[in-house]
């Protein structure tokens, strides 16, 4: 319990650090939102100065940071210049979509990788294992964008999958079930791409952990006692291999989020990706920071989740001292 | 020459408590050593005997500086060990582990392993250093042609010899053997024991022999100290050492075989 | 050179008297080869022996002589790089070498069980009681309650008191001796006819070793279980094994009743080995004089180099000229002793 409190405290400190760092980076980068307006001859420089003062952009860095923190405390996460609204509501729906995408992709990736990895480890050295190895190497070498474009091509040619967006017009406001089905089919494309992106790494780790577990003395002894092959695999070897995999699971959620931003842009999924892109191009600072904080928060939560699961899974961490 | 009147190693009132759990928790404290006194004279062997968990390894760790005792004083040749630097201590005291395979770097060749302590202590240049390495290998009976072999290419007994060579190359005064002969074949145990006896006779080495195997140490040691739960319970000198242990069937058989063999064997050394 | 005396009969000859006692396990001319890159060598060569029910047999020899390989071959647990190339293993009247993996799986644990030398044989993330129950569950159909009951009974009978707490403990919470007992419990839970114990006393202290050996002795008395105790240390076999098989360089060099072999060893290797053992246990140290330890000079033969003569010839104190030229056969000498040495072949 104490361990958990300590970890939450550490994570909060981490998040504060990330926000500070993001602020500093944006501060260091040249230009701001209003620079675009400089190009417009109709807007005078006095107007710009006035606008800047209005939005508090002329105040020193520390003051602006504290204002932002206060805004976070109010649940607003700053103010977007482009949309002329607080950041939080903007992020909410987009973040929800991104989480849906990343979460589903994580689930799919692990559901495929686990049995595949376990089987590869069991058939270590045989054709199944070598074939999988080759396949994952090809996947690893393929750039993410290429995979996304490849899927779009497939969608266009075969019309099995929609080519973008989250929902088709036809399904809007047609009732829960239709809407869910519709969203799911739109979700499928990006999820497949994201799963394919993360699959090679997961597969390699799972396979390596299982091979090591299968070679351990306790599994050898289990075999010597006449315990069946499948039971050894699932009940004896896999729990031993799970340790590093649980930590990997915690991390994979966070890293999948970063990959999803790019895929969302390419496949027109209305998540944080497109929003972040346009905010960066427009120098809409508070939206950028808000999106970055969200990503960090997910990453940190993922790691925390991994730690909690690890406590549950490995008795050596859980219990202290001898009987 | 070591001072014959002063003991080489003096331990007074050594205490060590092992704490488990977080630093603010007082729950899990185990008394590993409590008020341990012992003395070791130069050129002699002291056996430290006790069951597993009695604190023998902890004592070795304290002597080596790998763990800091909570109380008590350790004096080596009259000087307090705490005041001596790490290098100074390493030059005087070396440690041999039971698991030789684990104690040797699997990525280094035999020559590199023996050379490493010299490199760390920064003692000599290339030529004389190589000479010392060769001498050490010769002393333990490892052929020079094996300089390039890795630990996994050597048998258990050969690895233990390599570990001994590594310990000897810095010319220590005291060698701590922590179950160093356990698990080896009997013949290899005999060979290495003879090697250790020869080295003691030739160089005046002192040994602190830690073991839970009474039968082996009685042949080897000048004095014996028994540890139980971190405290010294018995001290014996050579002539008092008798193999005493429980007497169930197995040991009865052991002494039976030995008694029967005694009539047949003769002097015992081939 | 042919044996010409009548009391030297090869075990392969039809005149070899069959044992009166029920033969539980019979190993005949077993050869196991290892593949190391391009080279192959025989780790076990032409090994024959048998174990009767209720008998404790000791397999004695130095590390690398093939004792563990022999034991693993019995249950087809050999590592991938090795295989049985000739010989036969019979459990009762069943040929173990011709069995399929499924059939062998049935036998492992229920009829022949093995206690590994490795101390890490317990799974660190499964409770200790459940691990013992796993073995029972793999072979018998019992309800969960029955499983638990049987495990607790067994744990109590092998001296693990406080079975309640111990059942739910994890391996890292137990001491080394307790872990060893759990490994033994796993082997005994299905009440096998033969238990192979690989170096049971190697890495434990004397008192625990004595306890383990007493346990083995008790199991034999109460349940009639046979044991094959593999050890490099005669200490583990003296007083408990009824018969001793001595192996060197992959071959059986001596085979006979334990008392006789220990009191009157015939093969030079056995004699040299027992001399190393005897000096350790001679009791008192008189005065400060430290006697030197006996040892067997020379090194174990490299398995990759096949010698023409007897593999022990280089280290043998009784070496004769013929010993370097050809290899002796395992022949019977007196009523129940077998020895492989030219010394005893002279009429």
Summarize the structure.
The complex is a heterotrimer of chains A (323), B (270) and C (347). Chain B has 270 residues and is of the alpha/beta class. Chain B is built from nine helices and ten strands.
How would the global form of chain C be characterised? globular
* Secondary-structure arrangement, i.e. CATH architecture of the largest domain in chain C: 3-Layer(aba) Sandwich
- Measured as a percent range, the helix fraction of chain B is 25-40%
Main sheet record of chain C: 8 strands, mixed
Strand order of the largest sheet of chain C: 6-7-8-3-9-10-12-11
Q: What top-tier CATH class of the largest domain in chain C fits best?
A: Alpha Beta
Please identify the top-level CATH class of chain B: Alpha Beta
| Distance separating the two termini of chain C | 11 Å
Kindly provide the radius of gyration of chain C, computed on alpha-carbon positions and rounded to a whole number of angstroms: 21 Å
Secondary structure category of chain C: alpha/beta
Q: What quaternary form is this?
A: heterotrimer
CATH H-level superfamily title of the largest domain in chain C: P-loop containing nucleotide triphosphate hydrolases
Strand and helix map with partners:
The complex is a heterotrimer of chains A (323), B (270) and C (347).
Chain A: H1 2-28, H2 35-38, H3 45-54, H4 61-73, E1 79-80, E2 85-86, H5 87-122, H6 127-141, H7 144-158, H8 176-214, H9 217-224, H10 229-267, H11 272-282, H12 285-313, H13 315-318
Antiparallel strand pairs in A: 1-2
Chain B: E1 9-19, E2 29-40, E3 45-49, H1 56-64, E4 71-76, E5 79-80, H2 86-92, E6 93-96, H3 100-103, H4 110-121, H5 126-140, H6 156-168, E7 174-178, H7 186-203, E8 206-211, H8 214-218, E9 223-228, E10 231-237, H9 249-265
Parallel strand pairs in B: 3-8, 3-9, 6-7, 7-8
Antiparallel strand pairs in B: 1-2, 1-4, 4-5, 9-10
Helix pairs in contact in B: 4-5, 4-6, 5-6
Chain C: E1 23-36, E2 39-52, E3 56-60, H1 67-74, E4 82-91, E5 94-95, H2 101-107, E6 112-115, H3 128-139, H4 144-157, H5 163-167, H6 176-188, E7 194-198, H7 206-223, E8 226-231, E9 243-248, E10 251-257, H8 258-263, H9 268-280, E11 331-333, E12 337-339
Parallel strand pairs in C: 3-8, 3-9, 6-7, 7-8
Antiparallel strand pairs in C: 1-2, 1-4, 4-5, 9-10, 10-12, 11-12
Helix pairs in contact in C: 3-4, 3-6
């Amino acid at each position: 319990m104490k361990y958990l409190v300590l970890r939450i405290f550490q994570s909060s400190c981490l998040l504060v650090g990330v926000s500070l760092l993001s602020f500093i980076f944006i501060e260091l980068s040249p230009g701001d939102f209003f620079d675009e307006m400089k190009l417009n001859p109709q807007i005078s420089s006095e107007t710009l100065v006035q606008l800047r003062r209005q939005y508090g952009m002329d105040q020193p860095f520390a003051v602006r940071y504290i204002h932002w923190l206060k805004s976070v405390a109010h649940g607003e996460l700053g103010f977007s210049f482009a949309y002329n609204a607080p950041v939080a509501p903007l992020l909410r729906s987009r973040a929800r979509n991104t989480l849906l995408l990343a979460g589903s992709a994580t689930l799919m990736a692990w559901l495929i990788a686990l049995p595949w990895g376990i089987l590869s480890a069991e058939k270590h050295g045989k054709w199944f294992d070598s074939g999988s190895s080759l396949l994952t190497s090809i996947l690893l070498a393929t750039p993410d964008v290429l995979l996304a474009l490849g899927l779009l091509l497939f969608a266009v040619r075969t019309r099995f999958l929609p080519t973008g967006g989250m929902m088709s017009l036809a399904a809007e406001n047609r009732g829960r079930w239709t809407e869910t089905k519709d969203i799911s089919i739109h979700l499928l494309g990006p999820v497949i791409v994201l799963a394919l992106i993360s699959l090679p790494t997961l597969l390699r780790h799972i396979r390596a952990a299982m091979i090591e577990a299968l070679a351990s003395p306790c599994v050898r002894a289990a075999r010597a006692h006449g315990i069946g092959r499948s039971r050894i695999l699932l009940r004896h070897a896999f729990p031993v291999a799970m340790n590093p995999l649980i930590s990997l699971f915690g991390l994979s959620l966070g890293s999948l989020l970063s990959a999803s931003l790019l895929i969302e842009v390419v496949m027109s999924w209305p998540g944080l990706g497109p929003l972040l892109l346009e905010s960066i191009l427009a120098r809409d600072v508070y939206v950028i920071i808000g999106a970055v904080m969200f990503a960090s928060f997910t990453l940190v939560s993922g790691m925390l989740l991994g730690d909690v699961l690890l406590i549950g899974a490995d008795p050596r961490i859980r219990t202290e001292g001898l009987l | 020459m070591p001072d014959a009147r002063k003991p080489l190693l003096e331990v007074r009132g050594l205490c060590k408590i092992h704490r488990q759990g977080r630093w603010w928790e007082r729950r899990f404290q185990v008394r590993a050593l409590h008020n341990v006194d012992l003395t070791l004279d130069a050129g002699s062997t002291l056996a430290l005997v006790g069951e597993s968990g009695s604190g023998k390894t902890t004592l070795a760790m304290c002597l080596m500086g790998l763990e800091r005792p909570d109380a008590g004083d350790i004096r080596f040749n009259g000087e307090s060990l705490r005041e001596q630097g790490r290098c100074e201590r390493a030059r005087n005291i070396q440690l041999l582990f039971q698991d030789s395979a684990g104690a040797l770097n699997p990525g280094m060749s035999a020559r590199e392993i023996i050379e490493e302590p010299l490199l760390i202590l920064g003692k000599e240049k290339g030529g004389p250093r190589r000479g010392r390495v060769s001498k050490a290998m010769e002393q333990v009976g490892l052929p020079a042609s094996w300089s390039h072999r890795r630990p996994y290419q050597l048998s258990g007994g050969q690895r233990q010899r390599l570990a001994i060579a590594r310990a000897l190359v810095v010319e220590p005064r005291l060698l701590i053997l922590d179950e160093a002969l356990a698990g080896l074949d009997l013949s290899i145990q005999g060979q290495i024991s003879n090697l250790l006896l020869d080295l003691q006779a030739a160089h005046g080495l002192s040994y602190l022999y830690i073991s839970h195997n009474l039968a082996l140490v009685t042949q080897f040691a000048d004095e014996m100290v028994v540890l139980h739960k971190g405290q010294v319970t018995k001290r014996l000198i050579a002539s008092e050492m008798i193999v005493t242990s429980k007497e169930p069937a197995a040991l009865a058989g052991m002494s039976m075989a030995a008694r029967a063999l005694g009539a047949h064997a003769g002097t015992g050394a081939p | 050179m042919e044996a010409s005396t009548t009391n030297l009969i090869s075990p392969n000859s039809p005149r070899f008297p069959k044992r009166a006692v029920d033969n539980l396990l019979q190993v005949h001319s077993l050869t196991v080869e290892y593949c190391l890159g391009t080279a192959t060598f025989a780790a076990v060569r032409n090994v024959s022996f048998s174990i009767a029910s209720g008998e404790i047999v000791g397999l004695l020899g130095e590390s690398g002589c093939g004792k563990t390989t022999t034991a693993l071959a019995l249950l087809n647990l050999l590592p991938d790089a090795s295989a049985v190339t000739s010989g036969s293993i019979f459990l009762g009247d069943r040929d173990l070498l011709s069995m399929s993996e499924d059939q062998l799986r049935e036998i492992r644990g229920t009829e022949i069980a093995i206690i590994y030398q490795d101390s890490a044989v317990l799974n660190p993330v499964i409770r200790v009681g459940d691990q013992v129950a796993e073995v029972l569950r793999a072979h018998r159909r019992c309800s969960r309650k029955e499983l638990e009951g049987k495990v607790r009974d067994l744990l109590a009978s092998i001296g693990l008191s406080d079975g309640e707490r111990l059942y739910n403990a994890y391996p890292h919470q137990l001491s080394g001796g307790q872990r060893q007992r759990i490994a033994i419990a796993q082997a005994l839970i299905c009440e096998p006819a033969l238990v192979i114990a690989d170096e049971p006393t190697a890495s434990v202290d004397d008192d625990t070793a004595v306890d383990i050996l007493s346990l083995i002795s008790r199991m034999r008395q109460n349940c009639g279980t046979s044991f094959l105790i593999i050890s490099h240390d005669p200490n583990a076999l003296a007083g408990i094994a009824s018969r001793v098989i001595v192996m060197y360089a992959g071959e059986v060099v001596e085979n006979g009743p334990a008392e006789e072999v220990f009191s009157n060893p015939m093969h030079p290797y056995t004699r040299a080995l027992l001399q190393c053992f005897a000096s350790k246990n001679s009791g008192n140290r008189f005065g400060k004089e430290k006697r030197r330890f006996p040892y067997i000079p020379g090194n174990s033969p490299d398995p990759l180099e096949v010698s023409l003569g007897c593999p022990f010839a280089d280290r043998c104190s009784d070496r004769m000229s013929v010993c370097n030229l050809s290899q002796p056969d395992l022949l019977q000498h007196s009523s129940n002793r077998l020895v492989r040495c030219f010394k005893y072949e002279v009429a």
